[in-house]
C-alpha cells in the first residue's frame, strides 16, 4: 500500500496551512478537581463526623483527586489538544463509523460525492471503517476510509468537505442506520 497520511497527520498538515488551529486543554479543571479531592480527603480525616460520612467523603475525595490527576497528565502531552476550524472557530470532533460497503466508500471519497453517503450501510462487525472528523457547526469535515490489516490502516487519502457537503457528512454520522 502506498504511503498515505492518516487523519491525524492530515489534520496537522491542515493546521500548518492555516485551515485549522490547534488549542491546548485548559489546566484549570484538572487543578480544581485535584485540589477539591485533596480537600475532601483532608476534611474526612480531620473533621470529626460519623463514620459513614467520613468514609463517603474519603472515597469521593479520592476519586475526584484521581480524576484530576488523570486529566492533568494530558497537559504534559505535546500532541494533546483539539482542533478548531479557522473560518468559524468551531471545534472538530472525530468519530469512527464501521461500514460494509468499502468500495462505495472508496468511490465517494475519491470523487468527493458526499451525497452518496446516505447509501452506505453501517456494520459494527466490519473490517472497514470511516474516520469522520466534523466541526460542531457542520461547516467543515474530513473523511477517510480505513481497512483492517492487523490494525486499521488508511485505505484512501483524506477527503475534505465544506459547508453543504460537510453537513451531508454530519447527517451520515448522525443517521443510526
In a few lines, what is going on in this structure?
The chain is α+β, with helices and mostly antiparallel strands.
Describe this structure in words.
This protein is of the alpha+beta class and 177 residues long. It folds into two domains: 7-23 and 84-174, no CATH class; 28-76. 41% of the residues lie in helices and 24% in strands. It has five helices and seven strands, in the order H-E-H-H-E-E-H-E-E-E-E-H. Strands 1, 2, 3, 4, 5, 6 and 7 form a seven-stranded antiparallel β-sheet that branches. A hairpin with a 3-residue loop joins strand 5 and strand 6 (152-154). Helix 2 runs antiparallel to helix 3. The longest helix has 23 residues, at 51-73. The chain is elongated and about 70 Å long. The two termini are 31 Å apart. The model has no long low-confidence stretch (mean pLDDT 86).
